[in-house]
Amino acid sequence: MALAGSEASLELAKEAHAETGRGVVEDKDTKNHFATEYVYERIKNEKTVGIIGEDKVSGSIQIAEPLGVLAGIVPTTNPTSTTMFKILVALKTRNAIVFAFHPQAQKCSAHAAKILYEAAVKTGAPENIVQWIEMPSIANTTALIQNKKIASILATGDLVW
Length: 161
Description:
The chain is an alpha/beta fold. The chain is about 50% helix and about 20% strand. It contains 6 helices and 6 strands. Helix 2 (about 10-20) packs across helix 3 and helix 4 packs parallel to helix 5. The two termini are about 30 Å apart.
């Protein structure tokens, strides 16, 4: 997944700039590489499920388990890098994620999500592990974050559109 995102970094940076009119393509490219390559390198060896820690003195252990379905809220400022980062973190922790993208960054965000999702499925991830709202709106985003089946929310930015 990280490699697929990294390989598409410049294309996604150009798309994000064209769609949102924000930032500098080269800076967005750098953020995309950071959100894929650096994040992957930092988390790849981290244990995120099962026994993740042990205190031999007290005899206690730390156990982690997936939360379930996460909601991912993505702003217009750094849409592609934020999307890719959240997918890597969600899937590393064995959680599904459903995105609400900012309406002014819907296409580039969905493209970034699709690239990582397809790479994940090719390597054995379950179908539909990454999803997004096709018709962005405050009402749809609100419905997502208020859904009782959402275990946690990964929010970046605010809901001021």
